[in-house]
Write a structure and sequence with these properties.
With about 325 residues, the chain is mostly helical. It has two domains: about 180 residues, Serine Threonine Protein Phosphatase 5, Tetratricopeptide repeat (Alpha Horseshoe), CATH 1.25.40; about 90 residues, no CATH class. The chain contains 17 helices and two strands. A two-stranded parallel ribbon has the order 1-2. The longest helix is centred in the last third of the chain and has 16 residues. This is DUF4034 domain-containing protein.
């Protein structure tokens, strides 16, 4: 399986699979078959294989599902499930597709049915946290009470304590923008900070929370936006950035499926914190692979990434 590695001098690009070459090949096949207006059993087999090949690397499995569902269009997940109703991967892809569609305005997706799909997938492979993570995501979409999330969260933590997707879903739910508050976000971070391994798949959780808090301050305008520069001099932000800047760009330190996404987040935060040397080191470590977020908060993401990446490459 692919792991993070430095790629010097590469052309800036947006590729959903990041450095997962096997996933990239399947993604392109899926997109090609829909361009032709058809879906054959060979393509379904390829999707099944690339998902199953993740094995018990639940973080990589979630990454592969996320990329494939974004490439599959509206119909493919349902067709695959109809073709293979007891296929664990097909059920998960269908449930994730429901989540994407349910987030669209005017959606008529029945999330109770989606939760039933998650239940069936959990029965087929009890060790997998992914059905529980998708279940939690449905509750987040509906802004359900936190008491309904708590037992689902316990099921996830029992299977994969540092699951990246699950922790980001929890962060979103607990944020002031959704169902929680700044205090509840701090409680989440306090609950994981001391126990989480420094290079766990969810290692970027605290940095993601800081960047989102910065975005809220900027969006609110007024004095909050005017003081955004001071935001990055807060002790908690400095501590997180110091540790990440020292360790994350080292080849092999981050080895989870979305390590390059976390490096993008770190580079963005270091730019905002006016730490150009650290930002350049981190940008070079991405090998030119950009992610939509957080660059898309300030314009076209590849354009913004490329602007800073080329400057870093020129200084190398």
């Amino acid at each position: 399986m692919p792991v993070f590695r430095r790629r010097k001098g590469s052309r800036p690009r947006l590729v959903p699979e990041l450095d997962d070459a096997a996933l990239g090949k399947v993604r392109r096949r899926v997109e090609t078959c829909w361009d032709r207006g058809s879906l054959d059993t060979a393509v379904m087999a390829l999707m099944n294989d690339v998902i199953d090949d993740a094995g018990e690397d639940w973080d990589r499995k979630a990454h592969r599902l996320r990329v494939l569902v974004s490439s599959a269009g509206r119909s493919l997940p349902g067709i695959w499930r109809q073709h293979s109703p007891r296929n664990h991967a097909a059920l998960l892809l269908h449930a994730w597709s429901d989540l994407l569609l349910a987030g669209e305005q005017g959606s008529t997706i029945d999330l109770d049915a989606t939760r039933e799909t998650c239940r069936l997938a959990a029965e087929l492979l009890p060790a997998d946290p992914t059905p529980w993570t998708l279940h939690m995501a449905t509750l987040r979409l509906e802004r359900r009470p936190s008491g309904e999330l708590s037992p689902i969260w316990r099921e996830i933590k029992a299977r994969d304590p540092w699951n990246r997707e699950a922790h980001l879903q929890a962060l979103g739910y607990l944020s002031p923008d959704e169902c929680g508050s700044s205090g509840q976000v701090l409680d989440l971070l306090d609950s994981v900070r001391s126990a989480m391994p420094p290079n766990a798949p969810a290692a970027g959780l605290e940095l993601a929370a800081i960047v989102r808090s910065h975005h809220r301050a900027m969006a609110s305008g007024g004095m909050s936006a005017l003081g955004a520069g001071e935001f990055w001099r807060r002790p908690d932000a400095v501590r997180v950035l110091d540790h990440a800047a020292q360790h994350w760009p080292s080849p092999g330190y981050l080895h989870h499926a979305q390590a390059l996404a976390d490096l993008n987040l770190l580079a963005y935060a270091l730019i905002k914190a006016a730490r150009p040397a650290d930002a350049a080191t981190t940008l070079r470590a991405t090998g030119g692979v950009a992610t939509p977020w957080p660059w898309n908060t300030e314009g076209e993401p590849l354009e913004r990434f490329t602007h800073y990446y080329r400057r870093a490459a020129a200084d190398d």
